[in-house]
């Protein structure tokens, strides 16, 4: 893969921007898709949010200062886009965020792109019950195997706070899975 600073420079250069953006999309689309998918739970919604994320990255690349890694910056955009999408969707449907999460979990089994077994469905139900931050931290640490330092950059919070959030999330999930 192309060096990150070189890619950023090419993204900011009008002459190389289109080709560099193709490289960027190819390099990150799958990881970002799964990050988004674990937040919005629906394949079609994840595709829409992914597209919005890349549009925002394209339009905002000039403002990228390089104070964090490029992928951390993109994950932050993807996370914010996902959470905004869910807020808009719950507002549109006239339901609370919790009710929307329950509805999404119920529809997960019918989603042809969901390949999970019964235990995966139970895990998703447990995750839906977690507060937003705990859910994000759990998804990034457990599914994407990110280091706390990376998650800290993306969510702009302390490593200690993340460790506490992850620990609480694991305990709540264990309790939920045992009760079932």
Architecture overview:
The chain is mainly alpha-helical and 180 residues long. Helix content is 77%, strand content 0%. The chain contains nine helices and no strands. The protein has helices spanning 4-12, 17-40, 43-60, 70-93, 97-108, 118-128, 132-143, 148-155, 159-179. The protein is globular and about 55 Å long.
Keywords:
mainly alpha, 9 helices, 180 residues
Task: Write a short abstract of this structure.
By secondary structure, the protein is mainly α. It is built from nine helices and no strands.
The backbone outline, from C-alpha atoms, is: globular
Structural class: mainly alpha
The proportion of residues forming helix, as a percent range, comes to over 70%
By DSSP, the count of extended strands is 0
Terminal CA distance: 45 Å
Low-confidence stretches: none
> Average pLDDT across residues?
88
Largest sheet: none
Query: What's the SSE pattern?
Result: HHHHHHHHH
Strand content: under 5%
What's the total helix number? Answer: 9
Rg computed from alpha carbons, rounded to a whole number of angstroms: 17 Å
List the helices and strands and how they pair.
Blueprint: H1 4-12, H2 17-40, H3 43-60, H4 70-93, H5 97-108, H6 118-128, H7 132-143, H8 148-155, H9 159-179
